[in-house]
Structure prediction request, 486 residues.
Amino acid sequence: MSTGTPLFDTVIRNGTVATAADVFRSDVGIRGGRIVALGEGLGGGAREIDASGMYVLPGGIDAHCHLDQPKAEGLAAAGSVMADDFLSGSRSAIFGGTTTIVPFAVQHRGQSVVAAVEDYHRRAAGKAYCDYAFHLIVSDPSEKVLREELPQLITSGYTSVKVYMTYEAMRISDRQILDVLDVTREHGALAMIHAENFECISWLTEKLEAAGKTAPRYHATSRPQAVEREATHRAIALSEVVSARLLIVHVSGGEAITEIRRGRERGVPIFAETCPQYLFLSEEDLDQPGFHGAKCVCSPPPRDKGNQEVVWRGIEDGLFDIFSSDHAPYRFDENGKLRHGPDAPFRKVANGIPGLETRAPLLFSEGFMAGRIDLCRFVALNSANSAKLYGMYPRKGTIAVGADADIAIWDPQRQVTIRNEMLHHNVDFTPYEGRTLQGWPVTVMVRGELVCQDGELLGRPGYGEFIARRSSARDIQDRSAEAAWI
Ligand code: URP
Ligand code: ZN
Ligand code: ZN
Prediction:
């Protein structure tokens, strides 16, 4: 090792490095926030990190999380407030090895999307510990939104747009979905869709309420798989009509998966995301005494154990491109899940569960360490595919010369039993309480700065930067090409 001026700001030595394509032994040299050298026996660093026995992986990207999101009047659970803002949410993310988050700037009806984005930038300013980008949510695709705002925002780096087929206050019609898809196709953005059939859900909800079946477990009864299957099929058909790329978010079970496979067999460029709740929770978790089942109310709901296996198969065989938390942080108190009281009908319970910090460790332990997926597939699901699909690759999502030094060093020997008190979010529960995981990210860097190490917070709020994203449309035209590329 050199005794003069260090060549690097940081050198990570002796670790096993992995990308979505390769696993190799290498030191990692970092300067100016970027990876500048890979190889054995690199020169000296001002900071030296020994990663013997560890995996040196790209920092995670959680490409679906909700933070400090204002709620529309008329949403179920109106008045509930999100427990995490950009400060607590990003803090929680980094402790789970995630170095980039992509939450949503929401347009409510009658609002401008540009104004929603400006508001969301104010909410993020000075708070984030890690880098962040925004997806757009469009609930009111007026002519101005379609012709002026979306094209302008897509060009400015907001290259993904989510639309809803359900939730009274958010859903748009099939005709409006076609309009949005037409704009995303034309301007190279990626459309994301929440696929559940609104009419079926409201019809079933009314029937259940009339029969006095209002406990949290009936949330699952009101949204059976047929509701998700039908909407998934319809969403794929709409994207076929427009020839637009479409990503189905938070896929919960086998019936929607079958529709995605069928769409792909027809050559439709459909991408798919799932979340930990569909691997580790089931409808039984909604049936806990004392209203505690409300903690696991999310949409689509967790299914049965058989469907967990089907979702695992999609993780293993490449069906899923993206693995996100869908972190939607509501406390189990009068501002969150209990906003309408401990006997509230399921219709009024805030939808969503926390998961920013536990997402990657759950997949590392139960996917990679348990032998279901290899390390490259873990990296693909944890970060590389999100970087590619959402226009951040290769700056994010890989370990390569020139990439941002967003790195999580994982100790495969570290056993951690999840307790809410050890997590860094602002939610007062985790659905994964008591679950023991094998492996944990012990050192995390964002653009070359240590943000946490051995449980200690080293980063600072406001260090995280906004990432303006480019279009991935030219890289990923159709999914068969993308599958080969991955
Ligand atoms: O229940 C859920 N998924 N809440 C978050 C909002 C959404 O639809 O993603
Ligand atoms: Zn959704
Ligand atoms: Zn969501």
Remarks:
- The domain at 60-369 is CATH 3.20.20.140 (TIM Barrel).
- The longest helix spans residues 225-242.
